[in-house]
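Posting this for the archive.
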Amino acid sequence: MPEKTLTDSTHAGAEAIEAAPAASPKRWWILAIISVAQLMVVLDATIVNIALPSAQADLGFSDGNRQWIVTAYALAFASLLLLGGRTADLFGRKPAFLVGVVGFAVASALGGAATGFGMLVAARALQGAFGALLAPAALSLLNTTFTDARQRARAFSVYGAIAGAGGAVGLLLGGVLTDAFDWRWTLYVNVAIAFVAFAGGWILLSNHRDAAGAKLDVPGTILVATGLFALVHGFSNAETHDWGSPLTWGFLIAGGLLLAAFAWWQTRAEHPLLPLRILLDSDRAASFIAVLITGAGMFGVFLFLTYYLQLNLGFSPTKTGVGFLPMVGALMVAAQLGTTVPLPRIGPKVVIPLGFAVATGGMAWLTGIGVGVGSHYMSAVLPQLVVIGVGLGLVMPTAMQPATGGVAAEDAGVASATVNATQQVGGSIGTALLNTLAASAATDYLAGRDATSKLVRAQATIESYTTAFWWSAGFFAGGAPITFLLHRRGVPRQDVAAAPVVHM
């Protein structure tokens, strides 16, 4: 196909702007519905975690099987995300959104009614599968609903804040429901949330299929689904086995080979599942990397700080969730300010690295809990969480906007799915790496010391937490120069074939 001349491109860009649809008068209500649905998907990655001890006591499964309650969700979600995103492009975002919401609610109800370990794991896997359809449909709806540049920035600030803070909200809600009612309500609550999302989506959303003429890339779907499954499964096995186990490196190698084969196939497929043009833009690639690193580093906060607050400071599940609220508040304020003030003026090249630098400082400061077992929340945790929240608030929504903006309309769903996939894979990598490193740090600390001493054991756990925090700080520190080098100067350019955006 011959290249367009500069004049042709200019005319195409002008036509795209002239053809921009009028802003929907329902757009802020649509944002509210999309946010509710996205919150349901994101918080379910953590809401069950706090309830796991109660669920284990009720259903009687072993410590070794406990991880599958979390892993089943992550495996299904990560491996099916690109398929879910392409499905939304091919068959319409409204039906994909509504089917995803209903399926997620049914799977949650099944999980809440589980009578045994197998039923609960199957329900969590179904949640992940329907979440993989719902999440990219929601993000692509956001991407195509807001056509005004400034309002688009505000919308992404809300969405990005939810994506960044949803895990902490899940911890809070999980703690409250477990303490006040029963562990099953951490799953039943999704039915109520889904009802609101479905009713709003049915009334407010309109359907449009931007890739209706394309066909589903079946070989690509199989390659990427099995590749992501193997990759996430391999990192999950590193937690329960070790890095030298064939169940760890075997799956990791298989995942890498399958994903390499997927990338090769995408250059030859007539209707590629993930057009490589989405990945080859330097701004978009930098944003995907930022989301990946943030997903990996955030688990250093959520996972190990949860352990610290409950096991070392004696917090209840509800109090633990409340303890994360200052971070959520700081993240949401920074997300709103970052995407509406500096981003439209100077672009992501400065904002995202700055956010990573702030998050690095906050995470390094959090290692101060290692000063002594008697550290207090107000001095050793609260100010550090606020700083981390500000940093992540500058990174997450700022990265999501260029990651999904500027793509052709028929690629909006799969671009959105790629954002979700990178966050999920980043979280899986971070969980496995940080768990392994933390366990090794605790073992090394106990070597040559009296392991029967309560004080020594407590200090060993502190050592494991601070090790995880230092590594999380390292992830964030690495993200700053990478994103600075990859992002172009200024505000990201819009492709002429992109979904039109009107600048005020």
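Residues 1-21, 494-504 have pLDDT under 50 and may be disordered. The chain has two domains: 23-216+273-486, 217-272.
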